[in-house]
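Hi R.,

Here's the chain you asked about this morning:
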Amino acid sequence: MDGAIPTRRMRASGMGLQDQARLLRAKLGAITTKKGRVSVPSRKLDFPVFDADNHLYETREALTKYLPEAQKHAIDFVEVQGRTKIMVQGQVSNYIPNPTFERIGRPGAQEEYFKLGNPDGKSYREIIGRGIDCPPAFREASARLELMDEQGVDYAMMYPTLGSLIEERMKDDPDLCATAIHALNLWMLEAWPYAYENRIFSAPVITPGILDAAIAELEFVLEHGARAILMRPAPAWGYRGPRSFALPEFDPFWQRVEDAGILVVLHASDTGYTRYSNEWEGVQGEALAFGQPQPFSSTVASDYRDIRDAVTAMICHGALTRFPQLRLALVENGSGWVPHFLEQLDHAYDKMPQAYAEKPSLTFKRHFWMHPFHEEDPRDLVKLLGADHIIFGSDFPHVEGLANPISWADELQGLPEEDIRLIMGGNMMELLGVAAKV
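And the predicted structure, written out as tokens:
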């Protein structure tokens, strides 16, 4: 059973689907690869662009190079029916279908699917189309910087892809999990420095299950120049099982985060919530990041229960009250759920206001920065939260992202120029303390 590809909300339009598709294809142009490089049609905007959602494709050694010898067996690559798969703690995983990333899906291959749907009932393979060889720009920071120049992107957050499988598959061994995360962060520091040329900001991972280890990892990445940390929106798995990372026992960690002023990114990941749809389907299995969607699991996933639970925990378990300077970016979790969610928060508040320091919707609006999906209309979100709490992210070069990142600026037409500047880059620059290039 898969927990793949959440159903994402499409924007309503007066155009017919065929007309919309033609317009979208004309807007995208074509992605081509030449001599190991990727070429994306783009343009230069007259203000700094900061893409809050970019991804790297890990090399084969990324998760294993810095694992201590005693734990080397925990992660391995094996051949299964002629295909290379990753094995974690003796279990073969299909979470990422091609974990070596030698061949990858074309960036933006699903853009039309998410914007316009699938009226012809195409199979997942038909939607994805033919893959491409992985270009150096998806593997190396220096080559990526050259590509960003071509794309008209000034700054970018960079997140791992394969690394998102670690925590869920090691939750039964929190010590091993912390060790594996540290190994990944060491590799990232070497291959994708945390502040490369002050333009690419790679986000090292913090797994909170063991408090002392989480604080030690935080100190390590701060010492090496991290501007943001990456956490999955899921309970913290420790020696006694899972619990909220916003409970008071984690206050020493959040105190250090607040003192450092570092941004916390809660990015979509394998949160383990597939187990709930599995129970309803009567099956067992892992989440599949790029698998064939199924009706039940896709419908359930479209409620975004995991990110909503993580945000609820930060508010209702009091972490944001105890640490009022914390700043969190919700990346690649969509935004269509936010309006009703704020109503739910305030509905609970109305029943027990004595349990809160303030109306929880106000807490949300102060502490969280939202990254809407590219197919969502951002204008209502701007009205709800303010332009100063919306950030742009393309999810490049993933198949579900944008082929041409800065094309999303067109979705902001009709907003004041200053709002567009904030959303396309200004907000992230302020969050990371980045000064505009002269």
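The longest strand covers residues 50-55.

Let me know if you need anything else.
M.
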